[in-house]
Amino acid sequence: MRLSTRNQLDGTVVSVTRGEAMAVVRVRLTGGDEITSSITRDAVEDLALAEGSVVKVLIKSTEVTLGIEEDRAPRTRRASDRAQ
């Protein structure tokens, strides 16, 4: 299969936690890092995902959000402060 998605990571399913309608799939990537994906239970069943399944993680997003701890945040001025 060829896909246009640029961010393709190989991994192995570590766990599948099924909820009522959704499931959380935890995948260990080739380098040892882990990533989780929330997908429908139907998708888990259609793909026959289980612990040990070899998968390709495809990441397609229009936004990546970062966060930091409050005590580590540098103090910045707000736009309203700069206007003065």
Please outline what is shown here.
This protein has two helices and four strands; from the N terminus they run βββαβα. It has 84 residues and is mainly beta. The model has no long low-confidence stretch (mean pLDDT 87).
**β content, as a range?**
35-45%
* Average residue pLDDT: 87
Query: Roughly what percent helix?
Result: 10-25%
Gap between N and C termini, in Å?
57 Å
Spatial strand order of the main sheet: 3-2-1-4
Low-pLDDT sequence parts: none
User: Could you describe the largest sheet, including whether it forms a barrel?
Assistant: 4 strands, antiparallel
Radius of gyration: 19 Å
H-E order: EEEHEH
Number of strands: 4
What is the helix tally? 2
Q: What class, by secondary structure content?
A: mainly beta
Question: What this model shows, in words?
Answer:
- It is a single chain.
- By secondary structure, the protein is mainly beta.
- The model has no long low-confidence stretch (mean pLDDT 87).
- The chain is extended and about 50 Å long.
- The chain has helices at residues 41-46, 79-82; strands spanning 7-18, 22-29, 34-40, 54-59.
- The chain contains two helices and four strands.
Q: What distinguishing features does this structure have?
A:
84 residues, four-stranded antiparallel beta sheet, extended, mainly beta, 2 helices, 12% helix
